[in-house]
Amino acid sequence: MSTQSAQSANIEAIKGDITAIEVDAVVNAANSSLMGGGGVDGAIHRAAGPELLEHSKELRRDYPDGFPVGAAAAIPAGQLPAQWVIQTVGPNWNVGERDESLLRSCFTSALDEAVRVGARSVAFPAISAGIYGWDPKTVARVAVSAVRESARLADLDRVVFVLFNDDLLQLFTAELDN
């Protein structure tokens, strides 16, 4: 399902593999170490190859206490079809990070970073909807509203939520249809 914004970017949700999608920038739901992990983060690191880890290590040098929740930074995408991986750390519900503004910031900061590096198309996973314990329906609502309301939307052609199962796809599609 997709919607055309009054500004310019086409916003859509699809079921698929975020590591295989052809966009300029893929957003990674990273952990604060930026060194890879499980879920989407692990899949992106595996598909991108060792270059992504090396660029992540360089980025991490600026953040000795870990990359901050809600921030975003673009690094070269290694072997992915995308040019950039935008690292962002979602809030972890399980450790008390329950402020929706932190989750919203993941999406808006990633869009800011995408535009900064010249990306015209961006793919997002369902940040924090997995092991970080956020309710997927809340993630869909916050993600779609953050993207729709972003001032950066006019600078993009396509924003796609790439979801790994039918339940997430249904939730994001419902939000896009609202």
From TrEMBL:
SUPFAM superfamilies (UniProt xref): Macro domain-like
Domain of life: Bacteria
Residue ranges of domain Macro in the record: 1-178
Classification via InterPro entries: Macro_dom, Macro_dom-like
SMART domains reported for this sequence: A1pp
Pfam families assigned: Macro (PF01661)
Transmembrane spans: none
Gene3D superfamilies, per database record: Leucine Aminopeptidase, subunit E, domain 1
NCBIfam families attached to this UniProt entry: PRK00431.1-6 (NF001664)
Official protein name in the record: O-acetyl-ADP-ribose deacetylase
Organism: Epidermidibacterium keratini
